[in-house]
Amino acid sequence: MWMQIYSGKKFSFLDPQSEDVYFDDVIMALSQICRFNGHCNGFYSVAQHSLNVARLVTENKYTALLHDAPEAYYGDLSTPFKVALEQKIGSGLRTILDNIDKVVAEALNYNYPIPDEVKCADLIMLTTEKRDLLKPLSWDRELSPPANFRCQPLLSSTKIYPIFKRAIYENIYNY
Predict the structure, then answer these.
(1) Mean pLDDT in runs of 10 for the chain (175 residues)?
(2) What CATH superfamily is the domain 26-170?
């Protein structure tokens, strides 16, 4: 099973290869994938989320920018959805996703497994995004305190693409 990616090449889900992972494919896709499967107040991309995660880390900025890079290939699957799938179909999905995660990290040369600093910043952004982008609703889990800034949705993916691309290339050796 494979999909055509932005560059016009193929990416295999069951046998992913690092030579099939390209910066421009990842940057384009993450700039166009909306967080929360689009259930937020305005367009807020995975790329914008990643930029905000990078704002919160002191080290690992490059890894923070690319921590969700595999989502360029399998989408922004919500954690509750992944848990539900694992309960119904077992660990097969997790095995496929983990393999893609490792291959993408290797290809783009960022730290994997994702460092704790980045994981913590990711959780802070989840709370911040919940506060700023979602309708009020109590969640059945404890959340981190939000960041000391607000998330503002952008009008389109074309605005985030050049900002995200520049940030990645500026931090390519800061991982």
Answers:
(1) 97 98 97 96 96 97 98 95 93 95 98 98 98 95 96 89 95 76
(2) Hypothetical protein af1432 (1.10.3210.10)
- Would you state the structure tokens that stand for residue 47, as one six-digit string? 């790329």
- Which pLDDT belongs to residue 29? 98
* Phi, psi values for residue 120, rounded to 5°: -65, -45
Residues with Cβ < 8 Å from 173, sequence gap 6 or more? 62
CA–CA gap between residue 142 and residue 160 (Å, rounded):
30
Domain locations along the chain: 26-170
The pLDDT, as a whole number, for residue 173 is: 76
What's the Rg (C-alpha) of the chain?
Answer: 16
Strand spans (E) along the chain: 2-4, 10-12
The answer to whether the CB of 160 falls within 8 A of the CB of 154 is yes
